[in-house]
């Protein structure tokens, strides 16, 4: 596993709000190393490892030796990260070996899919839970069996893949009562993009809103239409961000929609590259949401390589987009995400396509990041790398200030932030000041 570093030049690029596809790809390779380190830790020190799990590990190693890129692509999926994170949290709590074994059962489908991707033969025995199992990157299989759990035989024999004698369909368009393929959203470019929309994986529910159950065909088709329309906006108005998104956006997890007039979104610390969201109400909102959440993924991956602040720091600060006080690490995440949002609204505002809400949205988000970065500038919890990063953020935010917006919108945005600050301080029992 590679030791990853971020140079001063890398930090400066990221602090601009962008970074470029090559640097973003490097950040995500760092996540690959992190996930493999977690798996090794669990295998070496966690309880519950069975002979079937060890055989699966041997198949993974053989597949990696035959086709490293194929197996790396499997580890790079955000759901592998979610699974690895769940394993790590589980063994940290002195669990029963049977609980760890149950989580480790996912090794077997991962291994057989790795063998399939690498083009090698393998036979493995795994276990089914609740009458169904997920083959990562492929789909979900419901077995013809009355038992809800028990042993299952997996066979990779190129070019096919079998589970308990049933051949797994080779395309994501094949559906049956027993097979639900992992579907993908697609949009032409440049850059063209294909993003899995995961409504099947058991590790997809790591958000503050419940994950959606399997999307119906009409619902999926609506997602596809809205995504394709949104991608054209991103590619036209913020092409450099489109280049980053084409590298970083690895999965979309549809969430239940609790409010028909608004949309919510989230990222998971373990599933870098995945976005959980319910369908936004407009293409412009969809575009800014994609940018917002991938900014979080970029910064999480960067801070795994180069810490920017004291993660255990106790100081808490005002953030205009939250009612609760934020630690420095959370404030960094918020400023970075909303810097990307402000830049996107700026492009929509200054572009020629006409987005009526863009001027007001740009003024509001710009005022938010200006107010929030003040606390970061004064913080004594930043590392030297974090100090350099925040200095770069300040320059990027100042650059947004050079864009002219109607004075009435600027005043309204500043008044809005000031009112939020006063309300925040009153909730905390504080007087004036910041």
UniProtKB/TrEMBL annotation:
Listed name of the protein: HEXXH motif-containing protein
Upper taxonomic lineage: Bacteria, Bacillati, Actinomycetota, Actinomycetes, Micromonosporales
Domain of life assignment: Bacteria
Organism, scientific name: Asanoa iriomotensis
InterPro entries attached to this UniProt entry: AKG_HExxH (IPR026337)
